[in-house]
Specification:
The protein is an alpha/beta fold. Helix content is 43%, strand content 12%. This is Nucleotidase.
């Protein structure tokens, strides 16, 4: 699928790429509205409407991914809620075999995630994901989400990357496109980010439901 001899580094998203997105979808689309309904004594439908609008207002910005922002904006203990649902944090079955294969091929493996550092730490605690990575970066360190060109320049400088010799893997076509505009040489989508939902269709980039199929 790719000219692997031209790729030195594989840049990897976390949620929906290496981890099952079911945890995040359950958390933000079910648990948060349920808790907001209880806290404010409003109907679940009203709580769903409220959070849907709140999410829409900041989508694509760093606030969208910021636990501190949502804790303040919604008045919920977001990090504590994360811990209550932590049993749903699961690594995809293909992730570690893929990461191990990359190591065997002497490819550098770097995690690029929009996840808040507290969320990242929790997920690393509940999985063995860190064992398959050489380095990692939360976009919060850069001050920009992966959707923004400044994130990519920060990341290239931090890890001294030649973007043309990088492959970026993500479940978001929008973010894959941002990486291409920034100069990343190769992109790969994940068509089944949430194990409990139908596959998604990618229009601009190749996509797989099993990372091993890209080797």
């Amino acid at each position: 699928m790719f000219p692997w001899h031209k790729i030195d580094t594989v840049l990897l998203d976390m949620d929906g790429t290496l981890l099952d997105l079911h945890f995040d979808n359950h958390f933000w689309l079910q648990l948060v509205p349920q808790q907001l309904s209880l806290l404010r004594q409003i109907s679940l439908d009203d709580a769903n409407d409220l959070v849907t609008q709140a999410y829409h207002n900041v989508v694509g910005t760093l606030d969208w991914y910021c636990l501190d922002y949502w804790q303040q904006h919604l008045g919920l203990d977001i990090l504590a809620l994360h811990h209550t649902a932590a049993d749903k944090i699961k690594i995809r079955q293909d992730s570690m075999p893929f990461l191990q294969a990359l190591a065997s091929a002497s490819k550098r493996r770097i995690l690029f995630t929009n996840a808040h550092p507290h969320s990242l730490a929790l997920k690393l605690t509940h999985t063995n994901l860190a064992e398959g990575l050489d380095e990692l970066l939360s976009s919060h360190e850069s001050g920009y989400p992966k959707e923004h060109p400044n994130f990519w320049q920060y990341a290239f400088d931090k890890f001294k990357l030649d973007p043309a010799r990088c492959l970026f893997v993500d479940d978001s076509e929008v973010i894959l496109a941002a990486s291409k505009r920034a100069g990343v040489g190769y992109q790969l989508g994940i068509s089944n980010p949430d194990s409990q939902k139908p596959h998604t269709v990618f229009n601009q980039f190749p996509a797989v439901s099993d990372l091993l199929h890209s080797l």
